Every structure is written in structure tokens, then in C-alpha cells.
Amino acid sequence: MILAMRRPALVLLALLASRIAAQDAPLRFVLELAAPRAAGPIDVVLPITSASAPAGSPALARLDDDTLVRADVIARADSGDATLRLRWVARTAMDAGAHALALHWLPHDAAPCPFAWAGPADARTLTLHDRAVWTFAARFDLEDFDATYKPFHELWSPDGATLLTKGLGGTHPHHRGLFVGWNQTNSGDATHDFWHCREGRHQRRVDGAESPFPVVADERSSIEWRDADGRAVVRETRTLSAWDAGDDRHVLDLVVELSGASDRPVALRGDAQHAGCHIRLAHEVEEHQAATRYERPEGAKAAGDDVWRDCAWALVRAQVGDVDAVLLHVTAPRAGAPFVYSTRAYGRVGSFQTLDLEPGASVVLRYRFVVTTKTVTLDPARIAADFVAPLRVSPAAH
After folding, report:
1. Rounded CA separation 217/210 (Å)
2. Is the pTM of this model over 0.85?
3. 62 with 126, same domain?
4. Residues 6 or more apart from 144 whose CB is under 8 A from it?
5. Which domain holds residue 98?
6. pLDDT digits over 176-190, tens only?
7. Which residues, at least 6 apart from 22, have a Cβ–Cβ distance to it below 8 Å?
8. I want to staple 357 with a disulfide (CB 3.0 to 4.6 A). Which of 38, 260, 295, 398 is the partner?
9. CATH code, 43
10. Which helix (H) or strand (E) element contains residue 392?
């Protein structure tokens, strides 16, 4: 029967067999660390050959120690070769140097997904192991402008029972959960305030997607910063990711990509109290400010008015309901764009930098947040160092 087959059919069978064998064989690669690294999230990009590419994206795999890995194909060449984004939570600390790892592909449903979304499209709540992580307030309504002029994320305690951040109302009503904006957004002769969102300026989500999966879940939103006439001034892609890093903490990564919406350059200016990426804790924190404590890196320099330079992160401890809340805010540095932190006793913490958006180009900002309680021991300096440390990864030599 096989001898009677034509050559093209035999070649096709051989290619198919090769593909199946490649999927059954582990994908071996080398992870190089310039410095020791604590247990926790790892996020790397690996170029691979077509024979090693997973059939779908995202794909599920495991390492030799049974750690689950999420693999996303982020580019695929005409040859079939691909670039994979690999994400997993390392179970133990790792020494500096080269680490040989093997990735074993699994069926898509080989492990239950711990993440799920619920709620209406403009108020979605992400849960992890049936506990709320965040709620995205994304509704926009011109008839209810003051309540809906910017999208924001409300953050929950690790047990999913207490909302830790401030929503609508209260002092400084423009402070809402986890939010992004610059009060001096300059385009042409106009200056727009996308922090307070005055005089009709607003931020509006125009599209979005959710990707629940084992290991880490992603939520991506396309947001337009619009002037009073409804014209887009800045386009933002906001991607918030939650890691399955243990029940005692939420580890969240935020990527903000900004670009001008026209052929004009845009200058993002302002000050540390009214621009950047900030989190405002629940309004009640303002009522007992003396109990709120901030921690910053050794060497951070006070610049006046609760502004801190040479400050890569800030950690706040505050009482919210019955929860002794702890929140760590980390900013990844960008060449030529120094940033500062602003920390207020009433519970607002965030980082600010001036940025220039050139036509046809975009700027990417990266942040990490850890939400936990005082019963958990954190090493903020280690977390921040691991977040920004470069990771080199390459296919293993055969």
C-alpha cells in the first residue's frame, strides 16, 4: 500500500510525522541570569524553529519540575519559524549563570484555568481561584460624564473580600483605583488635562480583549484620550496581567503603550502629583492617615511636597476595613526618561515622568504591583530588581 503511494504523499506523511515527533520532544533552551533571582514570575522571549512551534497560541507546557508555562506566539515568519513569549512562576530561587531548561508541550486543557472573568462588558471582574483580583470600570457615558470620564481598575485584597482602592466620589474624585493620565498633554497649541478630565476631555476605551489561561491572565484595552470635541489626541494600549503566584498575594504587571493620534508630536508634561501611573487606596485611608506608612529604597531622596527622586519603588501600608493592606508599586526605568515617585498619606502613590510622543512612534511604560497584607513578608528591593533585570534566553545547542 505504501509502495503504491506517490512521492508527494510520502513527503507529506514524513513532514507530518516529523511535526508530531517535534511536538512530542521537549523544547530545550537556556536561560541566562546576570544576577541571582528570587522565586517568582519569569517573562522571556525565545526564537524557535518551525518544527518546535506549538500548534496554537496560547499553548500550555511544563518544565522538568512540573512548573506550568504559558507560551504565546508573538511573531511567525514565512518560513514557519516563530518567536515565543514564555511565562512561568519559578518555584525556587535561581543562581546567576546559565540554566538549561526543557519545555514539554501539554494538551491545551491539561491543567484547569484558575482565572475567570464575570460581569458586564464595562465592569468586568477578574477572579483567581474564585477570588476577585480586579474590577475594570470601563463605562463611558456622555450623559453621566463625571462618573465615566476615565477607565480605571479597582484592586481587591488577596482573599477577594475587600476592595482596597477608591472608586467614585470622595476627596479628589478624579483619583480612581489604578489609573493613568497626564494633566498637561500638549499637542499643537492646545494643552489637555487627562488627569482631572476637565472641560470635556476624557479617556474612553474603544476596544478590548481578555485572555484567561493557566499561569497568567491578560486584559488588553485600546483607550483614546479625546479632546472636548471628541477627537483623539493620544492612543493608549493598556495591558494588565495577573500572575498565579500564590493565594497570599496578587502580582500584577501593567504595560502602557502610548502614541500620538495625529501627525503632530505630543508632549506629556505636568507634575508628580497630577500625572503618570498612580493608585489611590480606599477613601477611608484619608480618615486615619497617621496609620499609613510608606517605605522606599535606601538612597531615595526627598524632593519636597512628598516627591522622591532616585526612587525605583514605593510600598504603602494602610488599614482598609479589617485588612492591613500592603501595596508595592514598581516602575521600570526607560533610557533618557527619569521618573519620580509621589506618595501621599491619604493613600495615593504613583510615578511620574515627562514623555515625548513623536509621530509614527510609540512609548512603552512598564509597572509591577504586588498586593498583599502585613502577614506576608516582602522584599521590595528584590522584587523590583527581578522585575527590571534583563533575562537572556536562547535555544539550546544540539
Report:
1. 8
2. yes
3. no
4. none
5. 12-111
6. 999 999 999 999 999
7. 51, 52
8. 260
9. 2.60.40
10. strand 391-395
